[in-house]
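chain below, 468 aa
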Amino acid sequence: MKGITKRWVMNTFGVILFILLALLIVFSVVVQSLYYNGIRQTLSGRSGELTGVFSYGESFMETAIKYLESFPDKEMMELVVINQNGEASLNSTGFTPDREQYMPDYEEALTNEEHRADWCGRLSSGEKVMALTRVITDSNGNSVGAIRYVVSLEEADRKIFIAISFVCLAGILIMFFIFISSTYFLRSIVRPVREISETAKKIARGDFNARINKFYDDEIGDLCDTINYMAGELGTADKMKNEFISSVSHELRTPLTAIKGWAETMQMDGFNDKPTLEKGMGIIIKETERLGGIVEEVLDFSRIQQDRMVLIMDRVDILAELDESIYMQKERAAKENKHIIYEAPEILPPIIGDRNRLRQVFINIIDNALKYSGSDGVVNITVENIADKVIITIEDNGCGIAAVDLPKVKQKFYKANQTVRGSGIGLAVADEIIKLHHGELDIDSTEGVGTTVSITLPVISEKEIASE
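prediction:
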């Protein structure tokens, strides 16, 4: 017995047991008090009738003998007549009274104002009794004798024992039923928790197909659903990570192969073809730049994941950065027989941002638009100033994105189209950069029709401009 079960037994079960024991003790005291007080009141009532039996001037012993002979409750209690010398001289049983018997109630009755006292204890025979003594006095207040009532407590104690035993049995039954129901309840918790623990260990070891059987539709069931969902998401993330590694490896291998091939060609003996040399050097430079871009993209993603990306914020002319980005892509678009349509507005309010990071986002989005557009494809770029925001829209008529992939395209490592080059983290990086600028990057796409990317950035307010 360990874990939750042990803690429950030590805490809850222990507390319940303590409460039941406390209640049992209180019940025992109350029951005994009720029984004993009832007997005490009966004896007190009997002693009260002595005031009408004994009168001044009559012989105490003669009157006591008459009272003894006519006493109706001889079967219930013993009546003892104590003479003026404090000796038990007569009793209602017919036997000679034990004159050596200690009578603390008589001793106390002699000294108190009521001339009456009771005592509970054991006789010299060992029998447990309750005794009440009433001292009879003369006109001068001197003791002439006493009447002692003695009741056995054996029957009362037997009834008290039966009552307490019944309560103890009830307590044991309650504890038994609590134990049975709690054991069932604990098993309903411990069993799923153990399975959750085992499944979590499998997931930790990389088995993302492991699932937990849902036992109950409660908090434990919700936990099972959450862990199963987590395993599915981890499996998807692991698959995307592996695809990312494969994709980046391929992206790195392609330029490296070209660089290595041209470098080996230029090292060949007798190679002195200047046009070919210039072409090879151009390819090496181009592929080196491409490698650098891939590495920088991965580094940017790593910085974002670790919250280490630092933006150099300044007042930025967003049109200038967008123009520069479009210009950098126009030559490529012409070579691929694709068209970029862009009409710049006359003026836009400035924004606060990192010009290099914003240019990186624009280049990435335009690059994707060209990449996923076919021959003779069109990329349409518009800029609007609505209220206190600048909205840049980049729209293409390419292959589009499937509805099932659209919600995931901004996730890390996710690639909707595995046939097109790219690492799968460009959009994730772009989205994070725009978020760091307190803006939004939204993607809307229809498969086979095209994709529209909207970049929304806040502009500098007129108050901020006036305060500069």
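The chain has a mean pLDDT of 84. The chain is about 55% helix and 15% strand.
thats it, cya
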